[in-house]
């Protein structure tokens, strides 16, 4: 592994050279500055907490990070790095309840201490103590004296564990990805080069900090290049999506992004504001500084990017700023990325050929739009491999995406079997160990196109169907359905597997749309686009489909809930929500 500056060294250097430069700013729900911290202040606070941690923990002990939105999380994270304690960011308790995934993480990582701030200690302590026994709770926001001048922890090695990033659980139970200091440094350098960052590249972020995008992309990358990061809470963004582009405009941000649903939410909010005569809310919006609008969804929706560009072009947003990319926790974060200033690359592909796991461009103007997820980056190897034979696929064949490089994590915490299966795969003619991503894709002219998840692939009447294709068709069929809130999956039936679709409807259409009309439009669209009949269509009330912290639909959970009859269908006065 090549020598790169590790993050504890980077922060120490930034604090020494630019102690008064603003490192992070936190905005409240109104877009106002509620808190800030300089590089010097972050280093001093982190060292003080680290000194306390060393008194209670041994090197390698795990520390839960349980924080409300804000900057205290960042202090706690770096305190763990300096104390050689393994940070475990988790989704914090809300309204006196702990997220089910958090309970599983706590049991799996066996923490020695919990770091928190504000009233979270009072609400979270009794809930978690019942799961993992009595923990020592440390509030990082409490006043404490500076670290002793003699406190000088040994710098970490590249191979030592930096933190556990638990997977989102979109297809299985969350697993703790063991990310080393070297993995972090390698991926930070990849992001810097791919995004074109320097010390003037302000980043705006709203993703939760316990998620890899929020932590690695929106917190650690700005520090790595010496820039500033503007943070807001995910809840504030969900309630007022236009706070996001407003912050980009106000702080002249270079980079900011999110998954499909975030861009869709901004378009909907803008349309609503203009329809209601709220031009004053966006009158001063200027997005000309936004050079990297990254979208890391799998797959990336062409229609989402098109609508966002068309809606915000009057405010200076350039289509060349659209930056599709691909990544996953097992590779620390980023794997492939577009070329800065190029914009998105989209091709029309033959859907039937794609169902046969072959790439072919469509002719006659009809086909499935497929948006690329960027180019293979320096310092890594990305291969497309047949998941059954483990042989490299031929050009333009769809297969599983395999990755090799210094940014690939060490494996799964306390799970050697899954580690061997996922991180140590070998393909014919290549003895190196590869990460099996579980995603299906194809590389054409150097561009990676992600077409779906291996576990989500449906085989109906001998043909392959990708659920994302069907979900996109459904969400374009009628204005009453909610974009990004549908799940397509197969269930056993007479003569083989059959298609089931669960789709949420918009709240505003509960009284103005007819369920029978919506269901008819959805079924007709699926037949027309995919030549496929639907065994069961459930038009569900809003908020029933489970999603990961990054907004991904949990299809396996949706299938389980459906089989248990757990969805409450939407009904109008004329027709039921379920249509058979």
Structural topology:
Layout: H1 7-17, E1 22-27, E2 33-38, H2 39-54, E3 62-66, H3 72-83, E4 86-89, H4 100-109, E5 113-116, H5 120-132, E6 136-139, E7 161-166, E8 176-180, H6 181-195, E9 203-205, H7 212-225, E10 229-232, H8 234-239, H9 243-250, E11 255-257, H10 260-275, E12 292-295, H11 302-312, E13 322-327, E14 334-337, E15 346-349, H12 351-355, E16 368-371, E17 375-376, E18 380-385, E19 399-405, H13 416-423, E20 425-427, E21 430-444, E22 447-453, E23 458-460, E24 463-465, H14 467-475, E25 481-493, E26 496-505, H15 515-530, E27 534-540, H16 555-563, E28 578-579
Parallel strand pairs: 1-10, 3-4, 3-5, 5-6, 9-10, 11-12, 12-13, 26-27
Antiparallel strand pairs: 1-2, 7-8, 13-14, 14-17, 15-16, 18-19, 19-21, 20-21, 21-22, 23-24, 25-26, 27-28
